[in-house]
Amino acid sequence: MPGGVVAVVLAAAVLHVLWNTLVKISEDGYLATVLIAGGGALLCAAALPMLPAINGAAWINVLGSVVAQTIYYPLVAAAYRAGDMSQTYPLMRGTAPLLVAVVSGPVIGEHLTGPEWIGVGLICCGIWGIGAGGLVGRSAAPRTVGRRFRVPKPIRLALINAVVIATYTLIDGAGARASGAPATYTAWIFLFTALPMVTWTLIRRPRVLMGAVSKQWWVGIGGGVANVGAYGLVLWAMTRAPVAAVAALRETSILFATVTSVLILKEKADRYRIGAAVVIATGAIVLRLA
């Protein structure tokens, strides 16, 4: 992969961690997510008149992506309410590129080489390492109830969201290529995704939302710019490199998220969990650069 594309994807990874951290440190994760989505939508609405139109064939991808991402945002907030960011974030973001790599062959005709599969294997090991780290003295560990094996709620939410992430990644990878204008494609996605979220919250919690806008407007603006910027950069990269490879390299954000959760959010992360996060990041890099 060209060095310029690698640099762009790594920048997107840092931006992605930034808006996720804003959600985590907020008292109401869902409300912060709505503010970020709304801020991104305002940015996109202002930019669209200056951007070229997308090709008609890409509108079906826009629709599919909007549905998937409308599901994604509430799941992010729910996962962070249920468990530590240092556990749920790596599971969500680490599993998604694995799913993309497996499915991208039959779906979009991109097949992995031997070295790329090594990267996938490293990601798998790192993911299970994160889960195993949660077993050590944590209530979030998988447990048996009677004869039923019960997966804890934070892990369930993270894995469900990984499927959602993989779904919209494949949709958008193909859509960005078909659109002929990745920036415009990105703007339409974020505009349409924010509308149902903001409308629903305005109807159900109008005073709370207005209060949040007046007091935490900076979350919406800063998070919105980071969110749109992160995904826009990734979609641009997917027009110049394989979707599965870009999706994997993007997940070096897992390492940034683990560092952020420990140094800024003061969450507990022993050497076992941090090491597993590094393995996931290493696997993503190998998969991306193979």
Whole-number count of domains: 1
Number of strands: 2
Write down the overall geometry.
globular
Average of per-residue pLDDT values: 85
Q: Write the element-wise H/E pattern from the N-terminal end onward.
A: HHHHHEEHHHHHHH
Radius of gyration: 18 Å
Measured between the Cα atoms of the first and last residue, the distance is: 9 Å
- Percent range for helical residues? over 70%
Please state how the strands of the largest beta sheet are arranged side by side.
Answer: 1-2
Describe what is shown at a glance.
By secondary structure, this protein is an all-alpha fold.
List keywords for this structure.
12 helices, mainly alpha, 2% strand, 290 residues, two-stranded antiparallel sheet
Overview of the structural elements:
The chain has 290 residues and is mainly alpha-helical. The chain is 79% helix and 2% strand. The chain contains 12 helices and 2 strands; from the N terminus they run H-H-H-H-H-E-E-H-H-H-H-H-H-H. Helix 3 runs antiparallel to helix 6 (153-179).
